[in-house]
Amino acid sequence: MDILAKELSNPASSIYKHTLQGFMDQAVRQSNAQYHDPDFLGRLMINLQESQPGDKGWDIFMLDYRVHDLAPLATVFTEDVMNNYKKIFNFLWRIKRIEHQLSNTWRTYKEHVHKFEKIRGMKDIFHRLNLCHHEMLHFMSTIHNYIMVEVLESAWKVYLDDLKVVKDLDELIEFQRKFVDSILDKALINEKNNDLYRNLQKILN
Fold first, then answer.
1. For residues 91 and 106, what is the distance between their CA atoms, to the nearest angstrom?
2. I need a labelling partner for 108 at 20 to 30 A (CA). Which of 29, 100, 127, 129 fits?
3. CA–CA separation, 178 vs 170, rounded Å?
4. What is the CATH number of the domain that holds 197?
């Protein structure tokens, strides 16, 4: 995210997929992901969503994984399933983006705190800003931890247990659908939780 941040802060109209792909390749080379099977890495792609006026690169960026040309996997990872994975990615991406921005804001403040303290009459204001920043960071950390532990890890454990007893392809497809639906439900991003999701989006905005 640090590598992409500057580019994604530009207007969506000036963002190009091949540029972002270069940044992603660089990120892969700098992480343990470089040791994965090259075929797996070759299927990791960047897609850009349709932009709206005022959108930044952050708003249209999406990681995708190409499975449509793999006959066995494409049967399980249907278009509907992959669209739901995109919903999950967008939600997680937004949370990580906000956490990243809050961390950068705090870093900037710490770098210049000695200058801020010299501004007459601003000490109490900066104190209140710091309290507000702490509240926001705590909220985002709580949401992030809930998603990672209570949603993703618990759903993944159930899915792995299901895979141990799967009998046929139809059951495998059903277990995959159940896995994704469980994440959408617990993360509050399905239609059943529409009101909660809208309220959460307002807070994130």
1. 23
2. 29
3. 12
4. 1.20.120.1900
Residue 125 CB-density burial (10 A; 0-12 exposed, 13-18 middle, 19+ buried): exposed
Residues 99 and 178 in one domain: yes
Residue spans of alpha helices (H) in the chain? 2-8, 17-29, 38-42, 57-60, 71-76, 79-116, 123-145, 154-165, 169-186, 194-204
Packing angle, helices 123-145 and 79-116, rounded to 10:
160
pLDDT, tens only, 101-160: 998 888 888 888 888 778 888 888 888 888 999 999 999 999 999 999 999 999 999 999
Q: Which amino acid makes up residue 201?
A: Q
DSSP 65: E
Tell me, what amino acid is at 103? S
Residue finishing a domain among 15, 49, 66: 66
Residue 49 is classified by DSSP as P
DSSP 8-state secondary structure symbol assigned to residue 37? -
List the structure tokens of 132.
Answer: 């507000």
Quote the number of domains for the chain.
2
Read off the pLDDT of residues 84-103 as tens digits, 9 standing for 90 and up.
Answer: 999 999 999 999 999 989 98
> Which are the contacts of 163, defined by CB distance < 8 A and separation ≥ 6?
172, 175
Range of the domain at 179: 71-205
State both tokens at 152: 């993703």
109, two tokens: 């403040």
